[in-house]
Amino acid sequence: MMKAIVTDIEGTTSSIDFVHKSLFPYAKAHMRAFLRRHAGEPAVAAQIAETAKLEGRALDSEAAADVLERWIDEDRKLTPLKALQGMIWAQGYAAGELKGHVYPDTPVWLRRWHGEGKRLYIYSSGSVEAQKLIFGHSDAGDLTPLFSGYFDTRIGGKREADSYRAILKELALPGEQVLFLSDVGEELDAARIAGMHTCQLLRDDKARPAPQHPQARDFAEVKLV
Questions:
Q1: Is 24 found in the same domain as 12?
Q2: Are 1 and 224 in contact (CB under 8 A)?
C-alpha cells in the first residue's frame, strides 16, 4: 500500500495549456518591467547573476530580460527563470489577474487521498514558490493544506533517477511505498529506476503513451495497491 504520492503538475493535476497559454505569456509580458523595478533587490539580483552565469557573460537588467524572454520561448527548465517567473506570477495572483487551473477531479482525489492518510507531494520543473501559488490560488480554492511538501529542479532534473532517490531520502520512505504520477514517460522511467511505483496520466492527446507504466485517464483510475 502506498504511504505517499508524488505528483507532477502539467498534464497531471493541471492543464498543460494553462501553463503554456496563460502563465508563460503572463511572465514574458511582465518580465522586462519587473526586472527594471526590482533588479536592485537581493532576491532578484541573485537570479540575474545566475542567469548571467548560465549565459557566460555579464548582463544588466535589459540584457537579462532579453535572455529570459528567449528562455521562455524555448521552454527552458532553468532555475533562475523559474524563480523569476514565480515572483511575477505571485504579483499576478495577488492582483487577481491569475487563477491556478486544476482538473475537476484533482481536488476531489487529493482530498480523498489526504483523508486516507496518504502524504501528498508535488514535483514539478516550476519553482516551489510557483507550485504553491497554483494550488494556493486554484479555481477550486486553497489546496496547499493537503500537501506535505514540494520539490523542484533544485533537487535535480525530472528525467534523472538520482532526483527521485533524493526525494525518497527526503520522504524517509522506501520506493515501494511511494507512487509517482506524471504524463511524461521519461520522468516515470527515472522514478521507476529509483524504485518508485509509477502511473502515467493520459488526460489528453498531448501525452505520449508509455505502455511500460500503468496508465490512467484521470485520478479516479489511479491504483494505489
A1: no
A2: yes
Tell me the mean pLDDT in the region 13-35: 94
Q: Are residues 103 and 84 in the same domain?
A: no
Whole-structure pTM value: 0.86
Minimum mean pLDDT range among 72-81, 100-109, 174-183 = 72-81
Q: How far apart are CA 11 and CA 9, in angstroms?
A: 6
| Cα torsion angle, 197, 203, 208, 210, sign | positive
Give the other-Cβ count within 10 Å of 214's Cβ.
Answer: 15
Torsion sign (Cα): 46, 51, 56, 61 = negative
Q: Are 31 and 84 in contact (CB under 8 A)?
A: yes
Expressed as residue numbers, the domain containing 173 is: 4-16+99-221
Bridge partners, residue 200, by sequence: 182, 215
* Domain final position from 94, 113, 138: 94
Identify the residue whose cell numbers are 501528498: 120
Nearest one of 144, 104, 141 to 128, comparing CA atoms: 144
Distance of CA 84 to the CA centre of its chain: 14
Q: How confident is the model at residue 68 (pLDDT cuts 50, 70, 90)?
A: very high
Q: CB within 8 A of 219, min separation 6: which ones?
A: 103, 105, 106, 108, 109, 110, 201
Q: How confident is the prediction for the chain on average, in pLDDT?
A: 95
